[in-house]
DNA sequence: TATGCTATGTGACTTGATCACATACGCCTA
DNA sequence: TAGGCGTATGTGATCAAGTCACATAGCATA
């Protein structure tokens, strides 16, 4: 019980009604998942509403031709909108979620979820807010995929993915999967960025040298 | 009051608890909107949850460059997932909804919506199901835009948009906006379909001649 | 050092988007 | 009925991005 004070990790859940907090604590499980675990995917109906305590989950779509596109990531303190959608709407997933790091998460069973939704306005607000943020993300992705240039999108993504020292440990193939593009295309763009002195590449990693130049490109429509 | 028995139009709302039905009837308004009305759009926070009694609403995204893509349509008996998302999550719209025909709709105020959600499991299920269907649609769009060929997507859309006699009254420009593509591209594809004898075109309209051939193309990934 | 796996590079080609125009159609008016 | 106008459609050139086939390079391990 003592290690179950996890609601403190979620701003929207701190001021929950005490009996709801108690309900969540007594019926939910805290689970640990190793990096690489497929948490959900097409054809798998989710059994519970998932809140991330630690680690990140990547949500992506895989096409028949084997191409991939990353839709969004769930970080600690967030919940999975898709899980929510499916839990609520009883539809199967069209996308899959993979643990990018070791993950610690809270799994709230559907029955508990239903009860908390019906009894707590604060819980509803928490769930719906998370949901709408992710729907908004989906709109942005549609707009970008349909209308934005690949160099602009790559610049944006490099800035997002870089760590505090401007380093990105991904292969060209993985970057292509982030954007739903092709390895060769990404390789050529990176080559061009390198030619301009904006970054340096080596096998499996990239170092940003002029993030401001990338930011300027990323700011284009 | 008598003409407000609109819940009959929504399968998911027929078996609602009587007091919820009463709540909906007494606080919601039935509104009529002429074709072309912009029902919601970026920067407009929705004031109510909308259920369509008659007509169709087109939900689309417009890019900075002026290009458009149609996301989905809402038909009689359906609700607007986006409205829902925004109503629940308090986010602004990223897309706009336009009445394609004259529209008759029920507008449920936020307070009523909140109350019905909290008190009725059946109402929750109705809302969440509609929501998840539309989220699923968004996933399909992302997959298609990112990975499908334009001829396949055009064939699919022509079949969707054709009336019972295989007729489509849209310009090439409008078809391009359906798919987030360009007029010239659509024109060339239509020309190719016509060359194969699958359809005939004339100014502002298209007649499908061999829908089965289109269906076969549309079935490709 | 040899071997093998994975990552990256490259050229040729196809598809789709963009741009700048040219034409054609339908409708209204003189 | 002809002329004129606005919108819809056609067309070639060019560019951007994805695809395909294959070459090369980096790194680990035997």
- Main sheet overview of chain A: 4 strands, antiparallel
Helix coverage percent of residues of chain A? 40-55%
Assign an overall shape of chain A.
elongated
Please report the first level of CATH classification, the CATH class of the largest domain in chain A: Mainly Beta
How do the helices and strands follow one another from N- to C-terminus of chain A?
HEEEEEHEEHHHEHHEEH
Tell me the CATH architecture of the largest domain in chain A.
Sandwich
Strand order of the largest sheet of chain A: 2-6-4-5
- What structural category do the secondary elements of chain A indicate? alpha+beta
Would you give the CATH topology of the largest domain in chain A? Answer: Jelly Rolls
The CATH superfamily of the largest domain in chain A turns out to be Jelly Rolls
Describe the structure in your own words.
Two copies of one chain form a homodimer. Chain A is an alpha+beta fold. Chain A folds into two domains: 4-146, Jelly Rolls (Sandwich), CATH 2.60.120.10; 148-218, Winged helix-like DNA-binding domain superfamily/Winged helix DNA-binding domain (Arc Repressor Mutant, subunit A), CATH 1.10.10.10. Chain A is built from eight helices and ten strands. Chain A has a four-stranded antiparallel sheet with strand order 2-6-4-5. In chain A, helix 3 packs across helix 4. The N and C termini of chain A lie far apart (50 Å). At the A-B interface, helix 2, helix 3 and helix 4 of A face helix 2, helix 3 and helix 4 of B. Chain A binds a DNA duplex (30 and 30 nucleotides) through residues 149-151, 171-173, 181-185, 187-188, 191, 201-204.
């Amino acid at each position: 019980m003592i290690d179950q004070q996890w609601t403190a990790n979620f701003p929207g859940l701190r001021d929950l009604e005490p009996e709801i907090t108690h309900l969540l604590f007594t019926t939910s499980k805290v689970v640990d998942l190793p990096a690489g675990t497929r948490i959900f995917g097409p054809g798998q109906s989710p059994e519970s509403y998932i809140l991330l305590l630690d680690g990140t989950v990547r949500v992506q779509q895989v096409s028949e031709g084997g191409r991939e596109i990353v839709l969004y990531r769930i970080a600690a303190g967030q919940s999975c909108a898709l899980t929510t959608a499916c839990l609520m709407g009883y539809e199967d997933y069209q996308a899959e979620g993979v643990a990018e790091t070791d993950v610690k998460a809270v799994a709230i069973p559907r029955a508990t979820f239903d009860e908390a939704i019906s009894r707590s306005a604060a819980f509803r607000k928490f769930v719906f807010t998370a949901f709408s943020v992710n729907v908004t993300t989906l709109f942005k992705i549609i707009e970008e995929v349909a209308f934005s240039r690949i160099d602009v999108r790559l610049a944006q993504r490099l800035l997002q993915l870089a760590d505090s020292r401007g380093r990105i440990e991904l292969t060209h193939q993985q970057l292509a999967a982030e954007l739903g593009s092709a390895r060769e295309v990404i390789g050529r763009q990176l080559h061009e960025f390198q030619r301009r002195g904006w970054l340096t590449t080596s096998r499996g990693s990239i170092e940003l040298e002029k993030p401001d130049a990338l930011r300027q490109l990323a700011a284009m429509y």
